[in-house]
Amino acid sequence: MNEADSEEMFLHLSARGAIRTDNLEEADAVLVNTCTVRDHAEHRALSFLGRLMKWKRQNPNRVIIFAGCAAQRLGNSLKKRYPFLNIVSGAKEIEHFADTLDKSGLFSPAQKPTAVASGFSAYATIMRGCNFNCTYCIVPSVRGPVKCLPTQDILQDVTRKAQAGAKEIMLLGQTVNAYQDGNTSFADLLNRVSEIPGIERVRFTSPHPIYFTPQFLQAVKDNPKIARHVHLPVQSGSTKVLREMKRGYTREVFLEKVQALQEHGFNISTDIIVGFPTETEQDFEQTLSLVAKAHFFAAYCFKYSPRQGTPAAQMQLLPQNVLEKRLDILLNQVRDLSEHAYQRQIGTTQEVLMEEPTKGRSSGNFWVQTSRAYPVGNMVRCEIDRAEGTLLFARNEHD
Ligand code: 5AD
Ligand code: SF4
Q1: Which residues contact 57 (CB under 8 A, 6 or more apart)?
Q2: Which residues line ligand 2 (CB under 6 A)?
Q3: What gap in Å lies between CA 353 and CA 318, rounded to an integer?
Q4: Which SS3 state, helix, strand or coil, does residue 353 take?
Q5: Residue 316 burial (CB < 10 Å; 0-12/13-18/19+)?
Q6: Residue 65 contacts residue 32 (beta carbons within 8 Å)
Q7: Amino acid 112: pLDDT
Q8: How far does residue 46's CA lie from ligand 1's centre (Å)?
Q9: What is the reported pTM?
Q10: How far is CA 193 from CA 115, 116, 123, 152, 360, in A?
């Protein structure tokens, strides 16, 4: 989501004459798009600002834009602490970023219409914000409640991206499968996006388990353009902890959803938080056992990080060494299971969308290495010959 937001903000800058560079020394302006989901992310953004302070001292005409979720959370305090900031633009203001630039007087007015991102893979934001209130999570307060974009606007956006060369589209939203616009459900939207000429694969992230209904599966099961990958955050394997997190499902319900998705060919990855304040050793064991049962092919695991203003931040923290030990155990288990999941792909036939000359991703989101080079953006059909760690190797390729 942040990558998509950065791209959108960059396109507004580009319409005002900006050219992208990764080299700080040759830049006249820096856009810092920030995350605040864990404390560590915010720290990194602020320590980068420390570096930028020196950069700006070398030439006071240089411009710093601080945007995104940390900007939203820290708000006005930022300009007091960092008076050298030119623009602070919070996550809730992304739709008005062009106005923010114009009002700042720092950029010349737009010289051309805002372009669409080009490339064989493109993002399309379909909703912003979140209506849940998971007790550990800062997102609803920095991104606000759900706002779904009108279906027509999304279809138009994807059509423009397809005309600019996109073959794969990634639909984005904080609880992406809660999408609803009038009579158009998320499943309807997936199907309609996949019908746009040029679109060969549709991905989405991140869904919430409770919106995966039998109706959803029924609606997407015969559409091969919908990628067979779902990133489905579980957060914990203990029903007790899930209740305290206010996730809205039990361990059993989550496993049922996973099973139903897997029966329809979807590969599942997840997010897990270890060390939620009330997590006991038994709760953690429940997470390990859920991970073993669910056959995830990948899992992003995080140590719980208290976020000011969230209900869980009031609770007594577990000692850091407990969090570290649990994270370590979980990561080891995830690595082993992930390697097994890669092994299970051997012998299957896959369609690989090339992201590099000899590497691309299958519909299930597994990385595949081809034996020869193809143009980036080509779809290559192949058999999976072998797996090494979390990389598959192809044979009998043809594009
Ligand atoms: N501490 C640790 N991890 C968190 N996440 C969200 N909030 C926190 C927090 N306070 C994780 C969740 C979510 C992912 C984007 O970040 O696993 O799915
Ligand atoms: Fe945060 Fe929960 Fe919303 Fe996900 S569903 S963004 S974890 S509040």
Answers
A1: none
A2: 130, 132-134, 137, 139-140, 174-175, 208
A3: 44
A4: strand
A5: exposed
A6: yes
A7: 84
A8: 19
A9: 0.95
A10: 20, 17, 12, 11, 22
